[in-house]
Amino acid sequence: MEKKYGIITCMDSRFDPISITDLPPEHTYVIRNAGGRVNADTIRSMTIAHKFMGIKEWFIIHHTDCMVGKLNDEIILKALKSNLQTAEFNGHDWVNDDRFETEDNSESINKIEWQTFSDLKQSVIDDLNAIRENSLIPDTVEVKGFIYDLTGNTIDPVD
Description:
The chain is of the alpha/beta class. It has helices at residues 17-21, 40-53, 73-82, 106-109, 120-132; strands at residues 5-10, 28-33, 57-63, 88-89, 94-95, 142-149, 154-158. It contains 5 helices and 7 strands.
């Protein structure tokens, strides 16, 4: 039986996670979300993939110039509380179009863990630890962390 792989990475379309790893596309499964962060849904998907698909090796790949690394919870909450239209970056701040108003959606906003980060390497380490410490992911599952440099087109391991 062919070895199967999993990749957890960002939803950013500026790179193809399978091609940068040279893993076999027909045996590689990808979970993508904003920032490529490990969360409850990632663990759910990993658990199913391991138990029922036999994936025993996972790659966590974060990347340079990630939007989630340029945000923080305060920025997100402020932008969402004003309205739900797309915010624009004016070179200094994220601003909303004031023509739109929205209901108070604080309850929904506060239920989400936004998983922003300020240290790219640390975000990979945190995600590796989240997987390694989760009781649903057995120790026999190998997990490796990487940072992909969009400019240099290189992928570097994170220990």
